[in-house]
Write a structure and sequence with these properties.
292 residues; eight-stranded parallel beta barrel; globular; 43% helix
């Protein structure tokens, strides 16, 4: 169920920061037309830190209503408070979504046992499959494979988005966890290598602007067509890099606005992409055939 190219979709906004639901529909249709397998709504790329619960609910309901099963819909659900996460997964489970994505708690830096208990509590409250999310560059805590292997035995926890960009990490997760446990890459630049190491796909930032190329590249990688996958991924290399020249989702929202898919809105404390980065990002987009 969770495989291929899933997009960590942006939240389109007007210049005043309110959500642009017309652009939301446009983005969803763009991904249906270009082969994306699923969307993650309200994740880091969707500006989860500044989304209100009511806004997340509305984004999800509109996505489910429009998509009607054409794409997998995953809701970003994690917080740094176990109690708040339990409450959140409970109400999100009432929506017609396919799964929940729970990031490790940020800032409070729990030990590995704390991570285990946090996610186990969330799983007990959820009525949808849970995907773990490990991104130590943002959260300042690395959930180790041994902890993930313990959590893989908990009912309802079905996989992980692993953003540690090391193929050895992917291999260890695949080796330690049950066969049905899904490992997804959380790093576009190493997603192809992650699939070769046993991952089943990627939750992608690049797919916001290059959905067809990412979908085709992941499909080739999953069928072990290394030459085809490399041929599709190589033109995306500069784009993978330039989309992180400032904090995500600043660059990807700027490029989507340049493509005419969304407006310029982004919420403080994030600000629009600095002018010094425009040329590099545009050049990378042209190299990837995102722009003519």
């Amino acid at each position: 169920m969770f495989a291929g190219s899933l997009v960590a979709i942006v939240t389109p906004m007007h210049s005043d920061g309110t959500i642009d639901f017309e652009a939301w529909t446009r983005l969803l249709e763009f991904h249906v037309a270009n082969g994306t397998e699923g969307i993650v709504v309200g994740g880091t790329t969707g500006e989860s830190a500044t989304l209100r619960d009511a806004e997340l609910r509305e984004l999800l309901l509109r996505a489910c209503q429009l998509l009607r099963g054409q794409l997998i819909v995953i809701a970003g659900a994690g917080t740094s408070s176990t109690a708040a996460t339990v409450e959140r997964v409970a109400w999100l489970s009432e929506l017609p979504i396919d799964a929940l994505l729970l990031v490790t708690p940020a800032y409070n830096r729990p030990p590995q046992e704390g991570l285990y208990q946090h996610f186990a509590a969330a799983a007990a409250a959820a009525r949808k499959p849970l995907l773990l999310y490990n991104v130590p560059a943002r959260t300042a805590i690395d959930m180790k494979p041994a902890t993930v292997a313990r959590l893989a035995q908990v009912a309802g926890i079905v996989g992980i988005k692993e953003a540690v960009a090391e193929t050895e990490r992917v291999r260890e997760l695949v080796a330690r966890c049950p066969p049905g446990f899904v490992v997804l890459s959380g790093d576009d630049a190493t997603a192809r290598a992650a699939v070769a190491a046993g991952a089943r796909g990627v939750i992608s930032v690049t797919a916001n602007v290059a959905p067809r190329a990412m979908s085709q590249m992941l499909a080739a990688a999953l069928r072990a067509d290394a030459e085809r996958a490399a041929g599709l991924d190589t033109p995306l290399g500069a784009l993978h890099r330039e989309l992180f020249v400032e904090a995500n989702p600043i660059p990807v929202k700027w490029l989507l606005a340049h493509m005419g898919l969304i407006g310029p809105g982004i919420r403080l404390p994030l600000t629009p992409l600095a002018a010094e980065h425009h040329a590099g990002l545009l050049a990378a987009a042209r190299a990837a055939s995102v722009l003519a």
